[in-house]
Each structure stands twice: as C-alpha cells, then as structure tokens.
C-alpha cells in the first residue's frame, strides 16, 4: 500500500517533528544527485567529452541547452558535446574504442541509474526509463494524469531503479517532472522557521519499495563516481529532509517528447510552477519550439 503524501507542506509541521515522506525523500535524493553530478560533469566528464570529440574532429552541437546545464559555461559545453556524441553513428566507435575517455563516457551514459540503454545505433546511449516507455505506450494521449499513472504501473512492474522510476513510484507529477529534468541529458535557501533549542525528530515515512529501488540507485551512483550519497534509510532521514528544497523546483521545464507526424514538429513539455493556491503544480504544453528551464523560468518572472 502506497502512502499519500500530506497535502500540507512539510514546512508547516511542528518544528520538533519533521516527516520524510515519499515526496520529501525523492526530492532530497534528486537534489543530492544533481549537486554531486554537476561536479563530475564540470570536471572529469567534460575532459572526457573534449578528448573524444577531438579524436573524432567534432565541435559542440548548436542545440538548446536544457536542464541545469545553463548554470555554468563548463556545464553548457559538456551538454553540447554529449548531445553531439549522442548523434554520432555507432560505426565510428572503432575510432575511439581504445580511448579511456570514451570508455568512461560510455560507462556513465549506459549506467542503469538512467534506465536501460535504449538506442545502440549511436556512439553514446540514452536511457529508456519508465516515463519513456509510458510515453510510447500512451501516444497520442499524453496528459499529466495518463503519464503519471502509466509510468507508475511500468515502474512497479519492473526492477528499474533509475531516478525517474523512483520518482514514478511516488505517483507525484511534480516529483516526476523534477527528476526527469535532472537527467534530461541522459534520458530517450529554505524558508525560515521558529528557533528551537533541540534537534528536531525526523520521521521516516518512505515506502519500502521506493527505499529498495533508491538503495540500488545510490549504491550504483556511489560506485560509478566514488561518491558518498547517504544510504536511503531512516538513519539518514535528516540529510534527505534538509536536501529537499521545493522552492528550487519552480521553473524547471523538461522536453519529454515530440510528435513528428505534424509539420512543423510539435514538442511536448512538463514544467513546474506555483498554482493559485501557491502549491507546486505541473503545467503541460505543446509548442513548435523546444522550451528549456532557462526559457520557462524567464517567462515565469515576466508574468
């Protein structure tokens, strides 16, 4: 039985008791993943992408930069290089198969933390996660309700432990949109509270199945990058609660599919904003152009 997260924001709870619900946990995991991943993408992985692109005489792709990859020139360049390499035919692998940088990039992009590697026709794979499968199965009936429900059923019937699958198990479209935006490259401060003199009690109310899948995700990520994300257990409830910053989600926008049967091609997006009740909500929209988090956030600020 899956617990429904409380409709009351966790920040309104009594300060002596802080509850780590499915939403709080998964968003905390997402934030810890993002911050750790950025460090590797700006340094080690960027160097790998530069070397592979140099061997193949390729330049960074002139493509819309999605997700958090607009936050620094290094992240932007990494995004553009990987997008280029993801479109190189697999036949060229012989040119770089012995290059350690390519082996490392392929190890990362092919990791199960991003879903099952989907397309073997290109140099670097993209991950086919529960949301990708749900979109294929439900097209053209793409709606937030349909995709959230279908993605949940696909995730629960599989052993997928990607970040998107873990989000899908929460049955929360805000969480699903947030986590998909975090892995967009690889996929087919807190409000104040009253001062308290004692450390609050952190209550762990995460469903066992989510905890189980997240444990696989964390262990695989830590091994892949020699990182130390905390084990998803009640022992680390505080770390996940503190990492969950819902206000940071406002403005995230992810391009999750397109309809190429129409001319021009129409692109399908999910974006996170505040509703009329100031609670987070997901907006779905189609557009002839691809929207990014940077563009959608700018629109919200202008409205």
Overall description:
The chain is an alpha+beta fold and about 300 residues long. It has one domain (about 15-190, about 205-300). Helices cover about 45% and strands about 10% of the residues. It has 11 helices and 7 strands. It has helices at about 20-40, 45-55, 75-85, 100-110, 130-140, 145-155, 165-170, 175-180, 210-225, 235-245, 295-300, and strands at about 15-20, 115, 125-130, 200-205, 255-260, 265-275, 280-285. The protein has a 3-stranded antiparallel β-sheet with strand order 5-6-7. Strands 1-4 form a two-stranded parallel sheet. Strands 2-3 form a two-stranded antiparallel ribbon. A hairpin with a 6-residue loop joins β5 (about 255-260) and β6 (about 265-275). α1 crosses α2 (about 45-55) and α1 (about 20-40) packs across α10 (about 235-245). The model is unreliable at about 1-10 and about 190-195 (pLDDT under 50).
